Here is the input.
Amino acid sequence: MSEYLAVAIFAAFIVAFGVVSIGVAWLLRPARPDAVKLENYECGAEPIGSAWVQFPVGFYLVALVFIVFDALAVFVIPWALVVRTAGLGAFWVMAAFIAIVMLGWVYAYREGVLEWK
Amino acid sequence: MEHLALDALAAFILLNAVIGMVTYVTLLERKFAARMQSRIGPYRVGPHGLLQPIADALKLMMKEDIVPRAADRWVYNLAPIVFLIPCVLIFATIPFAPRLGLADLNIGVLFFLAVSSLEIVGLFMGGWGSNNKYALLSAMRAVNQIISYDLPFVFAALIPVVLAGSLQMSAIVAAQQGLWFVAYPVIGQLGFVAFLVATLAAENRVPFDILEAESELVAGFRVEYSGMKFAIIQLGEYAHMIASSFLGALLFLGGWLGPGSDIPAIGVLWFLLKAMLVFLVVTWVRWSFVRIRVDQILAVSWKLLLPATLGLLLVTAFWVALRGGAGA
Here is the structure.
């Protein structure tokens, strides 16, 4: 458990580094804002409207396929650890499982989910 | 209490080592890129430009920090730090020599994979919080890329795990005592190449840098950042890249193993040398190839890399299971 404590301390140090360096920069830097400077950057043109609009993300279905394979990865990681000792039986079980998931992949491929539209 | 103080000291040293390494790796990359283009690169600040990174850091510190009026202030200001945490935190589990690391977790590789993909949270916060169209498009592309390349990355990284039978970084290196995993016939080389391609994409490096794409998105999600916040985002990005190079050297190139690596100092040198070799290959790719399109990036990942890494993993597991628990 103490090893995780070291990781937590490290994370705290990273946050401290970020906050302190931004804080020091805040003390050193000039601050002369004006209306034009605070405008969003759009290559010099005046920005039209907000960026927070709805637009089609184009990879919605890919994200669904990702979830399937991510769940597969959850099962594969412990299996990868023990396959050496568990032997060929464990290998065939996982091979069958991956084959079933890959059938889904073939279906997604043929339905054109993996194409960018 | 004493234990706590020791941990804190180790964490402090590691943080400084990482920041020092990142600043100088930027110089290394600029010098290397310059040489590839028959230029000299940074030369004016200090002998051979050796003080350039320090000058850069000071300059960025003195620069005005601009928060666009339309931005979501909280999200915008928090994003650099949220981005920095996972990028540097992944160094926690990397041992630089036997017993010379912050925490040699028994789930080291899993920790690395899990935390390294968290960078997307900070990245998306930056892209969304800026309220800038380029930044938002870039963040969307980044999400697309991370969900496409995280899987090949994980499966490629699992190949050494299967070979070593452990997720602990030091155990994986120990398992390469006889033969580095990259030297294993076919699976080693193909696995290493798949790992390199997946890390290139996971770090959003050329030729997979569509989210930065200077010619269309200016600077991607960090277009509105300036001063120290920009510096912190850059630092995180480079830290992530170097950590991935270290992971590659550790998983496939035998980590600190090499002639004379019984002495910790020489082991660290070997490890650094291998990691820098991986990093230079990545840089070499960056300055040699052109950016590929979004649909091509998706195709490479989903149609080639994902089935290929899964297949490789199965072949590796079959071979390991066939040989039984005798050890590699």
